Every structure is written in C-alpha cells, then in structure tokens.
# Entry
Amino acid sequence: MSGHSKWATIKRAKGAADAKRGKLFSVISKDLTLAARDGGGDPSFNPRLRTVIAKAKQANMPADNVERAIKKGTGELPGVVYEENVYEGYAAGGVGLIVEVTTDNKNRSASEVRSTMSKNGGNLAGVGAVAFQFDRKGQFIIDASAVTEEVLMELALEAGAEDVLERGDHFEVLCTLAEYDALSQALSDQSIAVESSELAYLANVHVPVDDADVARKVLHLVSALDALEDVKAVHSNMQLADALLNDIEA
# Structure
C-alpha cells in the first residue's frame, strides 16, 4: 500500500474518535458555513454543500444544527467570520505535515499550532517548505459494498476522475480540484453514498518510517494537532513499513 492510502486508512479509523470527543460536529458545521458562503445555501445548486450535508447526516448531526450553520454562511443568521489557513511543518524523522485550519481568530490558531508542534517534537516550517511534497486533489472514499468497481470506474472516469483505487473494504477516487464538484454531482445523481470527501493534500514524496518509536511520535503529534478546535485536517507524508502497521495500531 502507498503511504497516502495507509494514511487514509488511519484517518478513517480516527473518525469514531473524533465523534466521541465532540469535534466532528464542529468541523462539519464550519464546512457547512463555508460551503454556503461560497456557493449559496441551496444544495441543489451547490454540490459541495450537498456533500457536506450528506456527511452531516452520516454523523447524525441534528437537522437544526445543519440549518443554522447554512444560514450563517448565507448571512440569514449572524455568525462569526471564518477563514481557512494552512500551516506546514515537520514531525519526528523528517516527516512532513500539512495542517488545515478553519478559524475565526488567526492569531489564536497560529499560536496553538506552533505550541502543539513544539511540545510534541515537531516544528513549523516556512510557506512552501513542505507543500511541494503534496498534491492537492479531490478525494472521495466510498465503501466497497456501496457499488461495484466496474460501475464506479465507468461513472467516475466519465465525470472527470483521474483514478479509482481499490483499497480492500473501500474505494478511493481521486480527481483534480477543477473536477471535484462535477464528480460529487455525478456520484450524488447515481445515489452512490460517499463515506467521506475532501480537497485533500496527498503526498507525492513519501518519508519511509521503519522505526516504531518514530512512528508513534508522528502519530502522537498528529493526534495532538487534530484535537485542536480550529484544526480541520492534518496530512502527513509518512510511509509506514508494512510490518509496523499492525504493531502501531495495537
């Protein structure tokens, strides 16, 4: 498995933990507000909003919460003004990190990310120091039981997908940023349930890690960053050795 596919597997496993600590609703709420702000509050004409609404339903987010978040984005209800920022840094072993933040206070989020990095064996890097090691792609994760590979391949490629990857219990569909909305629309039109979708940072340069202690330090830092209220997602270019994966998860 490639580094980013292992990372996707780890991120999927983390979903339940995010929900338990109450952060998932906060992340989805911000995504709803931003999607409505940028593309309007009608999901029929806003594929990105429709995708986030589907994610909210999968997370059992109350309908009232969804409606309020959308209305904040369209200006029908007062709310804070969110902005999106990206921080770059390094973890143990020279592993690169991209930290996506959605915040109403840039100074606060920058301070928290910097402090968390330094306390957990990482450090912030300058703009562009790490980003070249990642490609920004649309990424859709679809449960393997939801559709056959043949049907998904034909649909996705016709809608502009770059690749459809079989990952055992799920499919990973990748596309350019420009094709993200069209692919989201095509999947929705065919009632294919999307487990998760995002504009993700996928590693094009991988840092092999075959030391369990280093791997645990990286994962500990990622977990600490991910627990911050303003952090939406953390992306890593760590490539775990196959022999380590079960040991780390244990």
In short: The CA atoms of residues 51 and 184 lie 7 Å apart. The two ends are 19 Å apart (CA to CA). The chain has a mean pLDDT of 87. The longest strand covers residues 134-143.
